[in-house]
Specification:
Distance between the termini of chain A: 35 Å
Strand content of chain A: under 5%
Number of helices of chain A: 14
Mean pLDDT of chain A: 89
Largest sheet of chain B: 6 strands, mixed
Structural class of chain B: alpha/beta
Strand order of the largest sheet of chain B: 8-9-10-3-11-12
Number of strands of chain A: 2
Shape of chain A: flat
Order of helices and strands of chain B: EEEHEEEEHEHHHEHEHEEHH
Largest interface: A-B, 24 and 32 residues
Low-confidence stretches of chain A: none
Oligomer: heterodimer
Order of helices and strands of chain A: HHHHHHHEEHHHHHHH
Largest sheet of chain A: 2 strands, antiparallel
Mean pLDDT of chain B: 94
Radius of gyration of chain A: 28 Å
Helix content of chain B: 25-40%
Strand order of the largest sheet of chain A: 1-2
Chain lengths: 308, 255
């Protein structure tokens, strides 16, 4: 028989004895020992040479390298994303020539190593000494030396950006395909053109699927920029290499560079979290809490418990 | 007075590969009429509805809305496929409501209703906003305008979808099983909005399994099966006194 809870009153909340978890304490012990060993090594092994690392951590050429690494990352990702959207849309086109061209692009740029592509653009002058504007197969009105058109910085951007475009196009394509076909139909039935539907309806929803791998690609790009040291173009690794060829402190400098890369990718991770949250709008009933909101909640709960 | 029919279908055929889904549909829908299509699943009723706004291409026969051929231009006795822009223009005056609502989940209720007038017709934001709020008021959801679709019940979502279609001020409304995805207790609120729309004189083509609605609101009804119209007439006559054995068999199962 069903009972009326309003007249009965609610029974007391369950206060059960929690399950014992001895495995956790064993794990804590094991991890603590390993952590202590590592810490001991970091502090006592002189070859880490922390003073040397600290001395160069904010050195002008290191900071300059970081600046270059950062703008190179963002510029290459901007090129990659733009190209990626264009190629993805081409790939999904019903025109077989257009989708075939997109397929070919992805095939070439995803199928060859990015280091080879960087070296290719750096040495493009050896293949085509001059580039001109004129009638195809006919007279050239203006002729440039390729080396003037493609300096190291251009080679770096072309190499990273064009390669990234191939990967991004697959990510964007996956995002577009993830959007329910009903969305397309509803927009079409309202009279939106294909381009309007893509821009207003499909891409904003695809972003939810695109952002996590995009963040992944950005962090990957941050580290891939170190390859342009071989173009050669100066960035963080290139400048750090310059320092250690002078001081012979190879390991300390590489560790210092790694710590900088780690710091930068951590910042990007936080950025990704907030972008994901932005595009979760409407997909969840309530937006997930930000870490700061979570912290406030934990503190508020702790206070509440103490008062109770 | 011989008004141009709102929809005229003559021997409309549609096939997907070898499967012939529509095998010669002939019918006429008069302006201000509520035209109900019933039939078992797979009978082609939804496909026919989707042909009317060219979501599906007619493969043979002719289909016109308000005297205009759908999806094709006729020049010198030959049919030319319409360009995408012209098809989109044709669709603007035809509203459609889907079984699964298909609201835009990344936009608020109000933004959903405002989207097409803003993007397609390029109207001013203030005018569109005012009209959208009026429409939401009409479907009883004025207080939900800032919510996202995921925060609404199915019945509420479908009412927003109706308001969204009405925002383009269509001359014809297509309903593709608008209550089939709803919990039973939510069906009524959607049918109420549709009934009100019918009373205001909107031309409506409704694919549905709601026989009560068909009987009460419908002006004409066709029963489709196997890609053809099996029986047609006044909804009250067809539903209470079907002539064809296939109609009888179907109605005995759903009534």
């Amino acid at each position: 028989m069903a009972t009326d809870t309003t007249t009965q009153g609610r029974p007391d909340a369950i206060r059960a004895v929690p399950v014992r978890r001895p495995g956790r304490w064993v794990a804590v012990g094991g991890v603590a020992v390993v952590a202590a060993m590592l810490l001991n090594m970091f502090l006592t092994q002189p070859n880490f040479n922390w003073p040397e690392q600290w001395k160069y951590a904010f050195n002008f050429s290191v900071l300059e390298g970081i600046r270059t690494t950062l703008w190179l990352t963002f510029a290459a990702m901007a090129i990659g994303l733009t190209l990626g959207v264009v190629i993805a849309v081409m790939r999904l086109s019903t025109n077989p020539i257009v989708s075939g061209a997109a397929w070919l692009y992805v095939w070439i740029f995803r199928g060859t190593p990015v280091l080879v592509q960087l070296l290719f653009w750096a040495n493009i002058g050896a293949l085509l000494p001059t580039i001109g504007i004129g009638i195809p197969f006919g007279h050239e009105f203006i002729t440039y030396k390729t080396f003037d058109l493609v300096p190291s910085v251009m080679a770096a951007l072309l190499g990273l950006g064009l390669n990234e475009g191939a990967y991004m196009s697959e990510i964007v394509r996956a995002g577009i395909l993830s959007v329910d076909e009903g969305q397309n139909e509803a927009a079409t039935a309202l009279g939106l053109t294909q381009m309007q539907t893509l821009r207003r309806i499909v891409l904003p929803q695809a972003m939810r699927v695109i952002v996590p791998p995009f963040g992944n690609e950005t962090i990957s790009m941050l580290k891939t920029t170190s390859l342009v040291a071989y173009v050669p173009f100066y960035e963080l690794l290139f400048n750090v290499q310059n320092i250690y060829t002078r001081t012979y402190q190879v390991m300390p400098m590489l560790i210092m560079a790694s710590l900088w890369y780690l710091l930068m990718s951590s910042v990007l991770t936080v950025g990704q979290y907030y972008i994901e949250r932005h595009y979760a709008k409407g997909a969840r009933r309530n937006l997930p809490l930000t870490p700061i909101q979570k912290l406030k909640l934990v503190i508020a709960n702790a206070r509440g418990r103490r008062l109770a | 007075m011989t008004a141009v029919p709102m929809v005229r279908a003559e021997q409309v055929h549609k096939w997907f590969g070898r499967l012939e889904v529509l095998q010669g549909i002939d019918l006429e829908v008069a302006p201000r009429e509520v035209f109900v299509i019933v039939g078992p699943s797979g009978s082609g009723k939804s496909t026919f509805l989707r042909c009317i706004n060219h979501l599906e291409k007619v493969d043979a026969g002719r289909l016109s809305v308000d005297g205009q051929l759908v999806g094709y231009h006729e020049r010198g006795g030959k049919l030319h496929e319409m360009r995408e822009r012209d098809v989109a223009a044709q669709r603007r005056s035809i509203g459609m409501v889907f079984q699964r609502f298909n609201l835009f989940p990344h936009m608020t209720v109000l933004e959903n209703v405002m989207e097409a007038p803003l993007t397609v017709r390029g109207e001013g934001k203030a005018v569109v906003r005012e009209r959208a709020i009026k429409l939401l008021d009409r479907v009883g959801l004025r207080d939900k305008q800032e919510n996202y679709p995921a925060q609404l019940s199915g019945g509420q979502q479908q009412r927003v979808a109706i308001a969204r279609a009405l925002a383009m001020e269509p001359k014809l409304m297509l309903f593709d099983e608008p209550t089939s995805a709803l919990d039973p207790e939510l069906v009524g609120e959607v049918l109420d909005v549709m009934r009100q729309l019918a009373d205001e004189g909107m031309t409506m083509i409704v694919v549905t399994h709601e026989m009560g609605f068909a009987r009460e609101v419908g002006d004409a009804l066709v029963f489709m099966d196997g890609g053809v119209v099996v029986e047609s007439g006044d909804p009250r006559d067809v539903l209470s006194n079907p002539q064809q054995p296939r109609t009888k068999a179907f109605l005995s199962k759903v009534l």
